[in-house]
Every structure is written in C-alpha cells, then in structure tokens.
Design a protein that fits this description.
about 425 residues, mainly beta, Immunoglobulin-like, 3 domains
C-alpha cells in the first residue's frame, strides 16, 4: 500500500506542475503588454511656448514624458537645465537679431526629443545722428601734362578722399544724369566745352559737396585719336571672421560604450558658410562638462570643421558648449567689362592717359591693354604691346610712335623724323 500511495502522489505532483507551468506562461503572455504600458515610460515630447517684449523672452515648458532636459537659447550663453519646479524661464538677449532657441528633453531610458523656435528680436534704440561727411580732396587726372590743355575726346579720372561718407553722387554736367557710385570714377567727355563737375558725399541726411570746372578744348587741326581698351581679370579674395556657438548633449554614454558600433568618442561637425571655406579656427571660450578635450580639425578641403570629444572616464552624460571663431575665405573669379580710355595725340606730340587703377584685393591679377591709334575714322595701328619705334605714315611724311607704362600712366609719343 505505501508503494501505491507514493506513486499516486508522484502523478499528482506532475499534474499540478504542468498546470502551474501553463498558467505562468499565459500569465507572462498577457501581463507583458500591461507591464510595458504601466512600467515603461512614454517617449518624451518636447514642447514650449514663447512670449517676448523687446529682448526679453519668456519660455513656458509644455513638454510631456520628460524626466530631464535643458534649454539652449541660441546666443552663446551657457545651457540651462530643465527643472520640474521651474516650468517658466526668462532670458534676456544682449542685442537684436535672429536666434534659434531649443528645448531638448529625455526620459529615464534616455530617449530624446527636441523642439526649436526661431526668434526675430528687435529693440527700439535711440537713433544716432549721422556725422557730417567732409570731402578732403578731389583730384582730376587727364590725358595731358599738369596745366596743359585737354582735347576732346578726353577720358578723365576723378578721385575723391572724404571722411564719414557713405555714398557718393556725381554730376558731370554733360546732360547724362547723375552717377551714384564710388569715390573714384572714370568719365569720357566726347565734345569740347566747359563742364561743371559736382560731387556730393552723403552720410544719412548730412552731405558735403565739391565742384570742379573742367574745360575741354577742340582737338588740334592735325592730331590723332588714341583709344585704349583696358581689361582686368583676377580672383577676388574675401576673408572674414565668423563666430559660432557649438552646443551638444551626449547622453547614455555608458550604454553606448557597450555597443560595438558606437564610436570611441563622439563627434560634432560645423559646416562652412555657403560659398566659403574654413581656413583657420580659434577657440574663444567653453563651458564643457565631463569632456577632457575637443580636437578640432578642418576637413573636406575647408568645407567642414569636425570636433572629436574625449569624454571623461565613467561619465554617463556630457555637455559640449564652445564658442569658436572661424576664419573663412571666399574666392570669386572676376572679369568686369573693359574700360575704354581715350585721348588726343598731337602730330607731333605727347599724350599721357590715366588707366583704371589695379584692384588691390585681387589675386592672380592680369591686365590686358589694347592700344589703337586713329586718323579720323581710319585705324593706323593696333597692338596689345607698347610701341617701340613703330613707324606711321601721315600726309606723306613718316613718324615714329613710342610708348611707356608707369603704374597706371600710359604715355605715347609721336616723333617726326630728323
């Protein structure tokens, strides 16, 4: 009998074990979704409202599912961490402009979300009275020796030096209207006459003016017309300094370090401005947390600045916040329309033409000069090289044409035979 009771007890134990296993499996199957809903936190959703007056902005946090986060006001100031007891923060910007404010939030599992808003801030500042401009000098250079006559057609170069001038307006008195431009201009007077050239230098509503009287004489009875075509080519090199703020939160670093696909240290990238390349970088200031150092390198031929961060050992989160000054350069191929300079060469005689000044901020500069000499409408001689004893025949007589170029002054001399 004891042996039969023992066998029955064994069967009962096996039966109850199977029932318990089936029940526990079903329990896990049905309870898992419930655990996910009750125990696992929802994904965070970043949201906030803004109100501002002048340069002071009021940010109201309306995020959900956030356990932690921080504010990035987009003006280079330190990040401000989000706290549950401070749903509203105020921030005053130092100057008007366009800023991108961000709120980055995360839950206890490290899942993140962010929202950004662009703020266009302006402040009513008292207007400053513009300083009165002053024209210091107004020089005129033409195709003759100082004090000598100017013969039509004549190309003159006007060059002004002024203080506090934002804009120059020229009236050459030839009925062609006003010319708004720079302090240095070139003008050709085709007809003889007396011209009242008036320059006005403006700075806001303030102005100063200068007047020059130019007398253009009829050409001599025996004279040649000289026409010089001046073409410039080169590369305009523009350099500038641009300040950028780099902010980045690195979270869940311990978990990422266990992944074989994760990098050994996180990286951030800063692109060059459109049309520019980065030639140098200067570190202005930083408010980094749990970062030993950042190695900044210029890559992709200046198109990108890449920073590699060395995180402190054992840190689970780190904050990168650095202010950088990027030295950027833009290169643009320049080939403006050629300038035509004209003058009258007496027979025999000398003429000196003032050519357009060479640009100072160009590289790979090249100037091509084409010289033409006319007798009325007849082309006597043309070349891109200076004449060196070039023979010309006029009225049955032979002459020699020679030239020299000193900086921007081209001199042509027509000599009669001995």
């Amino acid at each position: 009998m004891p042996r039969k009771e023992s066998k029955a007890a064994g069967w009962l134990k096996t039966l109850f074990g199977a029932i318990a296993g089936l029940f526990s499996g079903a329990l896990v199957m049905y309870l898992s979704p419930l655990v996910d809903k009750v125990v696992k936190p929802p994904r965070p959703i970043a949201n906030f409202a803004v109100e501002y007056e002048g340069l002071t902005v009021r940010f109201t946090n309306r995020s959900t599912g956030a356990a932690q986060g921080y504010w990035d006001f987009g003006d280079g100031t330190p990040l401000e961490f989000l706290t549950a007891d401070q749903p509203v923060v105020s921030h005053t910007y130092r100057k008007p402009g366009s800023y991108t404010a961000r709120l980055i939030v995360s839950n206890v599992l490290g899942e993140q979300d962010e929202r950004s808003v662009t703020l266009d801030l302006s402040a009513d500042e008292p207007s400053k009275t513009a300083e009165k401009p002053t024209i210091l000098t107004l020089q005129v250079r033409g195709p003759s020796r100082p004090g000598g006559p100017l013969y039509a057609p004549a190309t003159l170069q006007f060059e002004a030096i002024a203080d506090n001038a934002a804009q120059f307006v020229w009236d050459f008195g030839d009925g062609e209207g006003l010319h708004i431009g720079e302090a240095s201009v070139v003008r050709t007077f085709e007809q003889p006459g007396t011209y009242r050239v008036r320059l006005c230098a403006f700075n806001g509503r303030e102005k100063d003016e200068e007047v020059k009287i130019i007398r253009i004489e009829p050409p001599p009875a025996v004279a040649l017309r000289v026409q010089v075509r001046v073409a410039h080519t080169g590369v305009l090199v523009e350099s500038r300094r641009r300040e950028v703020q780099v902010s980045q939160l690195f979270d869940g670093l311990k978990a990422n370090s266990r992944s074989k696909k994760a990098p050994s240290s996180p990286e951030v990238s800063v692109p060059a401005a459109p049309g520019y390349v980065i030639t140098a970088v200067e570190r202005s200031q930083n408010h980094n947390e749990n970062i030993d150092k950042v190695d900044w390198k210029i890559v992709r031929e200046g198109q990108l600045l890449k920073g590699q961060c060395a995180i402190k050992k054992g840190a689970d989160r780190a904050v990168l916040q650095e202010k950088l000054v990027l030295v950027e350069q833009r290169r643009e191929k320049m080939q403006p329309e050629p300038t035509i300079v004209t003058g009258v060469l007496p027979v025999p005689g000398v003429v000196t033409l003032t050519l357009p000044a060479s640009p100072q901020d160009w590289s790979d500069f090249k100037r091509i000069i084409t010289i033409q000499v006319f007798d009325g409408e007849k082309l006597l001689w043309q070349s891109e090289s200076l004449p060196t004893g070039q023979g010309l025949s006029l009225g049955g007589r032979s002459y020699t044409l020679s030239g020299s170029l000193l900086k921007d002054r081209l001199t042509l001399q027509l000599s009669s035979p001995l």
